[in-house]
Amino acid sequence: MTATLHSPLAVQKTVEARAPRAIAFEVFTARMSAWWPMATHHIGKADCADVVVEPRVGGRWFERGSDGSECDWGRVLVWQPPGRIVLAWQLSAEWKFDPAMHTEVEVRFVAVDAETTRIELEHRGLEAYGPAAGTMRDAFASPNGWGGMLEHYVLVAGG
After folding, report:
1. Which residues contact 106 (CB under 8 A, 6 or more apart)?
2. Is residue 3 packed enough to be buried (19+ CB in 10 Å), middle (13-18) or exposed (0-12)?
3. Are 47 and 33 in contact (CB under 8 A)?
4. Rg over CA atoms, the chain
5. Is it the case that residue 3 has pLDDT exceeding 60?
6. Is there a contact between 132 and 101 (Cβ–Cβ < 8 Å)?
7. pLDDT-derived band of residue 2, with 50, 70 and 90 as boundaries?
C-alpha cells in the first residue's frame, strides 16, 4: 500500500461512466489502448500500437511500438480490482522514462448504482518535478491531459 501524498499541485478529475464497476476497471486497465490518445501521447520513436498495464503489483505500465519496441512509463503500485489502481508515473518533464522519477496516478472506481461508476483520478507527487512542477501540473490538468483522456475513456467505457 502506498502513502497518500497530499499536495496543492495534485491533479484531480472525476467522471462517470455508464458501466458496471468491473467493466469500468477493465476498460481502464486492460483496454487502455482503446481510449489512450496513442497518436499524440507516446514517448517511443515508433508509432504507439498498444498501451499495457500488467495486472499485478509490480507489473509494468508501458507502451509497445508498431515495431515491437517497448517504452516503460511506470509500474503498478496497487492492484485492487475492481475498485482501485495506483500507478507510478515515471516520466520526466522531458517526457522520457526516468526510473528515479516517481509520481502517482491513483484511480478509484466507485459504484453509483449497478450500471454507473464514478471514476476518481488523482495524479499526485508532482513536487518531484522540482522547478517544472507547475508546468507539469498545468499539462496534466489541461484538456490534452487527464481531463480530455478521461472524457474519451468514458465514451469507450459506456458514456
Report:
1. 4, 78, 84, 85, 86, 87, 121, 122, 124
2. exposed
3. no
4. 15
5. no
6. no
7. very low
Question: CATH class for domain 11-158?
Answer: alpha beta
Q: How many whole angstroms separate alpha carbon 74 and alpha carbon 98?
A: 9
Per residue in 66-83, pLDDT (tens digit) is: 999 999 999 999 999 999
Mean pLDDT of 17-22: 97
CB of 62 closer than 8 Å to CB of 73 = yes
Domain ranges of the chain: 11-158
Angle at 27 between CA 83 and CA 30, to 5 degrees: 95
Q: Are 131 and 19 in contact (CB under 8 A)?
A: no
Residue positions counted in the chain: 159
pTM of the model: 0.93
* Local confidence band at 108 (pLDDT 50, 70, 90 cut-offs): very high
Q: Spell out the residues 6+ positions from residue 113 whose beta carbon is closer than 8 angstroms to its own.
A: none
- Give the span between the Cα atoms of 33 and 38, in whole angstroms: 7
Q: Are strands 116-124 and 103-113 parallel, antiparallel or unpaired?
A: antiparallel
